[in-house]
Batch of 4 targets.
Target 1
Amino acid sequence: MIKVPHSLSVQEVTKKLQVSPDDGLTTSEVKKRQSKYGENILTYKKAKSGWLILFEQFLNPIIYVLGTASILAFAFNEWLEGFAILTVILFTAIIGFFMEWQALRSFEALQKIAQTSAQVIRNGITKQLKTRFLVPGDIILLTSGDVIPADARLITCQSMAVKEAALTGESNQVEKNKAKLSIQTPMAERSNMVFKSAIVVRGSAKAVVTAIGDQTYIGQISNLVQDAQKERSPLEKKLNKLSIWLIWLTLCLAFLIVISGYINGKDITLMIKTGIALAVAAIPEGLPIVATIALARGMVKLSKKNVIIKKLEAVQTLGETNIVCTDKTGTLTQDKMSVHKLIMYGSVLDYKNLENKESIRHYSEEHLALNKIIEVAVLCNNIQSKKLDKNPDSIEMALIDFAYKIGYNVVEIRQKHPEIKEIPFESESKWMATLNLYSTGYQACVKGAFESIINHCNYILTKDGVKPFIDKAAWFNHVKELCSNGLRTLAFAFRYTDNKPKPNMLVQDLVFLGVIGFFDPPRKDVNQAIETYKNAGIKVVMITGDHPDTARKIAEEVGLINLKDNANTVIHGKLIMDIDNLSSEKEETILHAKVFARMTPKQKLDMVCFYQKHNAIVGMIGDGVNDTPALKKADIGIAMGIRGTEAAKEVADVILMDDRFTSTELAIRQGRTIYENIRHFVVYLLSCNFAEIISIAIAAIFSLPLPLLPLQILFLNLVTDVFPALALGMGMGKKDIMKQLPRDPKEPIITRKLWISTIIYGMSITLAVIGISFYAHIILELPYRTVNNMAFFTLLFAQLINVFNIPHRRFSFFQNEVTKNLWVWLALILSLLIVVTVYLIPLTRKVLLLVPLTMDQFITIGVFVLCSLLISQAIKRFGGTV
Ligand code: ATP
């Protein structure tokens, strides 16, 4: 890496870095540099080490409580118990470690897919490469929309401007060039350098990498800031809070029971034992970690369907999204543009004429404007070649295809009239222009949205030559007609001058040529997705820079609006320029509108803010560099993987690798499912733990023998908590999950109704446990051990079967997402196998204080277990639970 490259000439820099600007580095040199300098990533973004993950498992309140319980057990000479609790601590930490480790690794693997890439020249060949593999000395090619992958010195540069807001705070774009600068030039003024993380907004350049990773400018600031420390997702935070709350509740309860027992003169050792049992019973061992696992699993699942989630919390927000803003071209349409209609003064060519070379020849001989339009279309066009262009603009590509198809020689036209200046297309201005050399002078070639160009045109090219342009109104109608048929339109104009025009005069006094209508077929699967969104209470809004009539027609075709929708459904961008100061009536209109046309990128951002002000959770689909502020601001920024610029992909939370609108539906569905699964998991776990706490508390209060001993509870929690609960976390989701309204973000994980359900399921299990204890102790007068064992097995089986209480009551008991979840059945089988094994092995039987039970006693257990299920189900079917 070299210092102060801005103060060196291009030759000096490339010489120092030992690289040829034309051929780039060789593979062997790249390998050497990779082992010397490492990868081009910032340290804080590097993966968490395995040791740290393991260590963090012990920094958990659950472990603190279990640790205290084991110390108490040792203090009271309960060695077996003490060691057992220690084993559980280790076991919990190790399971936690493996699960989190795997979840993080799969998350990181996804991050790698989502990583931005860059065009690099190596061994004389240009290729696309993940930016992490760049080394100092690499030759990179930059174009509009790219995120600068490393600090680099410019070698060549064509009207390049970048936004360096992330680095310097300067939000305006900065012009770049390759000229050598003085060594004292401050960083913000180093115009011959580009810095990692800045965004190319215009132009193109070739540059040589001078610094990578932490050595880059951004690397040095972010090392100071260290802002990107891995945050827990809001969901994980909520779950952590819930477990801490539960711990406190249990500790209070345990304290009360111990004190009251002590006052009543009970044996203090027994009371402490009960306290330990309670604490152990209430700890939801797997609660926080399941969130990470469920979220990470959801992410992996989505990645298989071409949806890359970049931030863990995005999964949660996806389930809350109630407005999805989308653009039109490529998302709702196929982005396969073709010339469909061409209108010039006095003639209209539709695709039938355009298919026919003979008729074209006839027209071109007769009509000067056709030749001129093709000439302007070819010259005022950035397509170099289909193969070389990374992200070809489909409308420009359609023009080149069209020119070839009707027999024009694109290369020859371009050679004949070389370009000497370009004013690039911008979504704000909606036109582009080039200045080309002509035999005896200069020709300005202009193409763009009709409304943006028409006012600059004072003449029109007719069959009889250039005439004053009088009848502009008729042209508005022509364009309207094209747009009403769903065509995207471009208007063309030119101007010939003998002398080189001043830049501000380039698009003055133009000669209008005509308009071309492009057909871009709507995507076939969008209708279905929009219908699903409607049912899911999610509003889809189209925000486009295109003409209102084109937007309306496409919106109709994809089912976003229907013919009956009133005129206010489509709103023109110019009507909402000042969106912050609208009358309440107008705000209402905007809230009801579904299509916004002729919108600028700034207005896209305004719309996101507007919806958020009205309490919506907004998903925003975008692709361009201009979309980045809106993508960032939206609750969920969704970038297109194929069409999207590197800048859009960098800021987005979600990347659709296949650019399909329908993939957003998959993502939202998965987001909802994961949240539901976590809820199921939590309700299941809490109801099981609740049953344990209450059973012990009741036994302590009524001076019954303890129905459960600490070791038995630990065993139960490891068997009944972990496997079925994890299986619930892997559920496929309800069939009708996309028929429900979006979740209210303010809603807690466990709503009031879910708390009631949790308590009812917990109480049903408790009734069975206490019931069998009474029955065996008082009526059957069985020995203490047998009573305890019967209570233990009742609790165990009732907890396992409790998994079938989880589905919503609108589903049948036999046909629902839990009975259809293969994981649940596997978990139940595994749990049962463990129980049988433990029961059969003498050592474990001794540790768990198990005694042989008779067949009759097992049947009694079965009856009580069934009763607990019946009670829960009866209450559920009468509407007492969810
Ligand atoms: P969509 O929602 O369909 O993706 P958009 O919001 O990206 O559209 P823009 O690409 O900004 O819209 O296009 C707005 C208008 O600018 C188009 O209707 C067209 O008339 C004009 N336009 C588009 N591309 C070009 C181009 N390459 N050169 C000149 N004018 C263009």
Target 2
Amino acid sequence: MSLHPDRLAVAQMGPNNRADSRAQIVERHIALMEEAASAGAGFVLFPELSLTTFFPRWLIEDEAELDSFYEAEMPNDGVATLFSRGRELGIGFSFGYAELAEEAGARHRYNTSILVDGQGRIAGKYRKVHLPGHSEPQPRTFQHLEKRYFEPGNLGFPTFPSMGRTFGICICNDRRWPETHRSLRLNGADTIIVGYNTPTDHTGHASVDALSLFHNQLSLQAAAYQNSVWVLGAAKCGVEDGSFMLGQSMIVAPSGEIVAQARSVADEVIVATCPVAETVPYRETIFSFEKHRRPECYGAITAPR
Ligand code: CDT
């Protein structure tokens, strides 16, 4: 099978219900990875928290039960087959997971995503900076307790040269902030990858909820155009444990145009040819957002709140 480094895939995932076993979920990753490889893709992106259900929708007070959603090491036995199949196929991949880290003798919880190259080596790691939701339960059917279950990422916005391009990773809510994408681009990214779990009933305003799909598309297209980068978005979607999450996974060119988009809210692979060279004209035109920036005027952006 000949995989091309310019061919990139997004593996949108349907729901991971709480009753699904890790083995079943990893099997689905492998089936999607194989489909991406048979379409010639050298890299495939999976969603945020792709190994579990989106557990921040519940208040979980039992520490051991909460721990069961986290990975204390990566890779681990539960994902070994995914890493070995990626190595066999020579395909790189990225997926999100809940990370339980030991730092300076203390336990820390992060919403994390890693980049793995075609040889199965971890080439990069990112911890979500913009955590949405709340830390205390609210009077609502589904919670969004990311602020309770995760600490804000402490790795900044690093980028990772790998597989012939420079990847920048962000996670879900991060995609709504122009600062995320600008930081990644200024740090050298030509390709931004973002996995997400976006419930469509969470803002508290029906008129805002009604525009969930539009805002997803707007964020990804603006990020691509305003930073002259490729953007890949991978949803975990459909009805997961009773909560509906939007799909609309897509690949966006540096022009801001959508070049591939999922049509379902289930497991689905989309693929596009994404040459890094296509970022160049957008960096070189009269509109070059890099060359003509005026950071001396942007102090308000980085001033403490
Ligand atoms: N997972 C995640 O970050 N979801 C958010 C929705 C939060 S609504 C409180 C998102 O930006 O899609």
Target 3
Amino acid sequence: MSRKSIILPKISKGGRRARSGSPWIFSNEIRMDEAAKAIVPGAVVNVRGEDGRAFGTGYFNSKSLIAVRLLAEDCDAAIDADFFAARLGRALALRDRIYDKPFYRLCHAEGDGLPGLVIDRFGDTLTVQTGTAGMERQIDPVIAALEKILGPKTIILRNDAPTRALEGLSPYVKTLKGDSHRITVEENGARYGADLAEGQKTGWYYDQRDNRAFIAHLAKGKTVLDAYCYTGGFGILAAKAGAKEVVCLDSSAPALAIAEESARANGVTIKAVKADVFEELERLKAAGETFDIVLADPPPFVKSRKDLEPGAKAYRKLARLAADVTAPGGVLMVASCSHNIPQERFAQECAQGLLRAGRRAALIRQAGAGPDHPVHPLLPESAYLKALFYALD
Ligand code: SAH
């Protein structure tokens, strides 16, 4: 059966984005006729302009706002195990140049030329996430490609991200190969436990690696509050770097249990506290307790565009409360992993929060995710992680 084509009308406002190289084409940019609507969600298509110009090969979902995600510049490109092996091989070569141990995000969707595909590597274990109907249909060739380039012992499909619903996909977690989902992550010279099947997202947040190292560098002899600690990524490294006291705060008991285990494995002590961060910060403030380093790395407060205003307010409040418990001369990090708040807005809200806390602050570092989370240059909004570090008077 020959491949179906999707047509971009000649005069279309947003089509300009694709014309200048963006890998996304929105549903209002294409001719959504009966033939297009009849194409099964996620099918591989050729994308052409009305004028005959070829935009390349992509996958299509008439039900998704991002209707087409382009995979290759040419029409009729073969999307098979060899295609995925070539893209994943390129992604692997890049990580091999950056890291000396096989612990990293191996594939970061559009940033690695594979929209909808996220793969984290933990030595010989891989977690694979497909976020779109198009990539879901390619699981078999993707796995075949991974077998070819890496031959991992364990492969776990973590297809339970809530955003899959936007593509009409249901959530599931499945071990395709191997059986051990409790593994050890090696990062910044520390060893952390992670549960790749039951843990949050893919079980470990590689995106904060470089920010953890930055904080550890400042931690010797200091007191540290790691709020929204998850399994202790920041706190344990700070303790290892010689922090005087580390309090790890989270609402998840299983995450805190892993944090305590990991602390022991690294020969350090942390104090794990199960509480709501806002409530605990209020309590600490009332008790007059402060820390030399305060980290606040919450779950996304702006889950969709309609949450922007309440989410922005929540970041402002978090910055204020976190500043209240930061000691004079201390360092505060506030992070956001919300795709839907722009960097400037996030920085503005944090600045307001600090002002309301009555603290003079100097922004000493603005960072995002590490280099194993590459960003497509024409999709700057996919740089979701923002971390702001302030030195407070
Ligand atoms: N800093 C972590 C990642 C944080 S992910 C790291 O470096 O790995 C966000 C964390 O916030 C999750 O562990 C989640 O359990 C926790 N969380 C969500 N809502 C919370 C709340 N209201 N109070 C405390 N923790 C919360």
Target 4
Amino acid sequence: MTIVPENDTPFPENVDRLFTDCRVATMVSGRYNSMENAALAVAGDKITWIGPKNALPDPLPGNPPVTDCNNHWILPGFVDCHTHLIWAGSRAKEFEIRLAGASYADIATAGGGIFSTVKATRAADEDMLFNLASRRMAHFLNQGITTVEIKSGYGLDLKSELKMLAVVGRLQQAFPPHIEATFLGAHAVPLEFTGRSDDYVRQVVDVMLPEVKRQGIATAVDVFCETIAFSRAQTRQVFEKAKELGFAVKLHAEQLSDSNGTALAAEMGALSCDHLEYLSEHGAKKMADHGTVAVLLPGAFHYLKETRVPPVETFRQLAVPMAVATDLNPGSSPVFSMLPVLNMACLLFGLTCEQALAGATFHGAAALGLADRKGSLARGKDADFVIWDVDTPADLCYFTGITPLKQVVIGGKPIRLEN
Ligand code: NIG
Ligand code: FE
């Protein structure tokens, strides 16, 4: 294990809290950069110093409160860069139908799947959605997730999409994790537009996007580019308008087939392309050329009993950054924690533990355009981290069924977790 003192900057004058006797994996540049016998100082909501404990001044200036970490590991809080955390209704029955042999696409084509969640989400009022989503957020926090992206996309009409994004706004006020809101109006062609998908895309472009912009309730725009959803040409229309309005863009791409959406998204400057099981070499090269992050979603792969894996080796060779995320949603990935995702990323997709952890931290932050603040531990970064009772960071990929979490710190503040 490498022991890298992170910096030799002088110890700061103002420290609000000091964490000592820890081991730290900074995940800077997606590497462990492990430090033993370390200490980490926080002022306000930022990290101000990380270094060897024996380099601490004695006495400590300002006599800050000190947390003894008992030699536990500190890692950046998890960044879950792809979720559909707000929904109503249940898809457990659909799970049973799929176990009996029906495919995800069959169910969607028959008006189930996403459409059943749309029906329930449209019917739920904002308070009900907020209450359902709050339980999920509390659970995420208990699992060490400190930054979350949340998509709309189960409304599919102006009123219901705005309702979902209003719920995201309430979650941003109510919970400590940083939340990024993404507008996914182009998630599926709503049943009332069957056979008229271009008309629906016009609604998204001419009505929904400008209103979402006017209300300032999302920062990014996502599209599901797939045979059962939207074409490349339709994706382009949505992205052109989104970019004109100043949104970041990202794409659900090559999940069930190769629509070559990734190349389009990369060329249009997408932050990330997500899923990617059916990605071609051409698409991967476009991602490399444009610095697009590949967001791998092994939960959806697992739950859909997919057999084709994303081209991880190609990503490695082309140095395409790989993030991993839960894709929490009631259909393809009812996964409420990063820990099983890390495990699946290793066992199903062949990532190393370091790559999986980098995907859940450093590259996850890059997928949200937040790499300068989140996802790694260094002086000047946001003080969002988790103290884990593990022998080595790899334990977080290796164990299943336990959450060996000791403390979550967000914005420099220890968070009281509720059960
Ligand atoms: O990321 N692929 C499209 N959207 C979600 C699934 C949504 C659903 O099935 O409700 C996904 O897998
Ligand atoms: Fe998704």
